[in-house]
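QA checklist item 7 of 12: single-chain prediction sanity check.
[x] sequence parsed
[x] length recorded as 305
[x] structure emitted
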Amino acid sequence: MKRRYLASILSVIALIASSAFSAHAVTFTPPINNGSPSQATGGASRGNMFTPAAGKGAPQQATGGASRGNLFTPAAGKGAPQQATGGASRGNLFTPATGKGAPQQASGGASRVGNYYLNSSTVSTTEPAALIALLPQNFYGTTVSERPTILVYLPTSNAQEAVFSLKDEAGNMQYQMNISVAGKTGIIPIKLPANAPALAAGKNYQWFLALKLDGQLSPSTPYVDGWVQRIQPSAELATAMQEQDALKRATAFGKNGVWYDCVATLATAYTSQPNNATLRKQWEELLSSVSLKEIVRANLLASTN
């Protein structure tokens, strides 16, 4: 009895200590009933900054390799592809929004971590050697933007160019562009340009980023992908989006399970103030919460456009 009582006390103390975030801690809360891949496999991990929204389900037969955290909370009812395939996993910083559902039988390769490079001589022993999508464990996230910013970690490679593409849920190509990655290593923000079609609210889209090794794409081309759905912000979130303080905006996005805008807003703020200890701590906590601790110290690169 004494051992059991002591264990209970220690558990409570640990819980209190783990929840001691700052006043404006950026946390992602996944929506209720949001499940991670039932048969996922792979090689990456996440943290607890993001919390998915209630009712969001991750791929039921997805393949991948990572875990999550608590910074982001997904919104209720949002579900990721039920039969998506891929090669990575997510975290818990983001919380998907209520009532949002992702493809139930979507096909593809949604994954947080891409293939490893074929040319091992270009890979650093101190950096992750794979493409990594900054996403929750279910490869799925929401945005309030018609043309969101997508963040991807680029490892060292000999690639000069990458191809970014966006498809609708039925697999129809919506947009494609080439991105220069020559000499780039770190987290790159991919902003959909003004000439890209606006995402329709309530629709699911799958994006892909593939590296051209030796100047071309092939069956063994390293790539990473994920899902995105545009949602309409609640009145509360719309008001919070007017905040001048970027950290407060990021916190509001995380609280409402809007992953893409949460992580992009915090990344922009941190990039503009790299010596800000508060922003650095929030950035590290957010990525760790979605099991992306391995890239918390990666360089934040300039936007693609």
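[x] summary fact logged: Residues 25-295 form a domain with the Immunoglobulin-like fold (CATH 2.60.40.10).
[ ] second reviewer sign-off
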